[in-house]
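Field log, afternoon session.

UNIT: design team B
ACTIVITY: writing a sequence onto a fixed backbone
BACKBONE:
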């Protein structure tokens, strides 16, 4: 059993849902056990300087990737770091922060897998890949409500960033162990929190044998939970799909199976003791229950806890 911190990476484009997923997993594992790092803090330039230089925050040259990977190496061995701080609210660089790692470290941001040295520091790597129309809606909502932008400004910034997204952000998908894609069941509408999820399970790490509780996609094409084979970026993968309309009863057996392999996870799986499992805010601020999100959180937590035992 390892006694060093277990490091989870969550990478994806701006407004792909990284912070929402991070917050849920941290709550699930216990905030006192988790240290959260945002790689946006390693920006080299503030918002004004980026505008003057004509560079976006997505470009590697706009970030201190060498310091980021050095800090990841230190965190992996349990050492503290003096982390830089970037304020999304003001667009400015602030005083650094002393960070000492807890049992689990979640590192979320744009360029977490940009260098091999950084990639080698993670125990589990997740990539978020929502459909672009959904990500656009999420980014407009976040940046207009929390960062003071107008919708027109958000759309113009996304257009400006697109070449860097294509060149630097999306290729990082190839390094992930899990690819998480939340998507609406009807592509013409985006429901209020009831999104489906498609989980690409790459064979880089040993996933639980879900065939014990889920039939094949060919057998149960209309089922709310499906398991199938596919290819992702040219490589064979397993794919788990959970529909937004799945019921508590339909996901209960799958949740119990994932939890049963790890004693530490059994208590966390109990919805009475962990009511935050699968909770998400709707478009008007109400709290909704998302079983696709709950399964995603469970599967990622499963891998983090398995990593503490060296995947025995």
């Amino acid at each position: 059993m390892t006694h060093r911190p277990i490091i989870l990476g969550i990478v994806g484009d701006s407004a792909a849902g990284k912070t929402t997923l991070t917050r849920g997993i941290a709550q699930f594992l216990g905030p006192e056990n988790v240290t959260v790092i945002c790689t946006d803090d390693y920006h080299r330039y503030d918002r004004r300087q980026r505008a003057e230089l004509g560079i976006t925050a997505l470009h590697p040259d706009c970030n201190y990737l060498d310091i980021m990977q050095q800090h990841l190496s230190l965190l992996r061995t349990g050492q503290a770091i003096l982390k830089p701080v970037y304020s999304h609210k003001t667009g400015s660089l602030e005083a650094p922060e002393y960070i000492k790692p807890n049992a689990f470290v979640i590192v979320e941001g744009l360029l977490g897998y940009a260098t091999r040295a950084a990639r080698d520091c993670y125990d589990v790597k997740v990539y978020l890949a929502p459909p672009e129309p959904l990500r656009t809606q999420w980014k407009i909502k976040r940046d207009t409500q929390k960062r003071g932008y107008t919708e027109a400004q958000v759309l113009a910034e996304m257009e400006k960033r697109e070449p860097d997204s294509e060149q630097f952000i999306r290729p990082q998908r190839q390094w992930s162990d899990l690819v998480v894609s939340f998507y609406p069941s009807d592509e013409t509408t985006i429901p209020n929190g009831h999104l489906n999820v498609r989980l690409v399970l790459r064979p880089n790490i040993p996933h639980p044998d879900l065939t014990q509780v889920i039939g094949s996609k060919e057998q149960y094409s209309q089922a709310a939970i499906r398991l199938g084979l596919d290819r992702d970026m040219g490589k064979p993968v397993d794919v788990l799909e959970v529909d937004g309309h799945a019921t508590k009863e339909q996901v209960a057996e799958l949740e119990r199976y994932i939890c049963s392999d790890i004693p530490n996870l059994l208590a966390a799986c109990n919805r009475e003791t962990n009511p935050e499992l699968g909770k998400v805010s709707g478009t008007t601020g109400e709290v909704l229950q998302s079983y696709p999100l709950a399964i995603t959180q469970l599967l990622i937590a499963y891998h983090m806890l398995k990593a503490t035992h060296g995947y025995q």
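LOG NOTE: The chain is about 35% helix and 25% strand.
NEXT ACTIVITY: expression trials, pending approval
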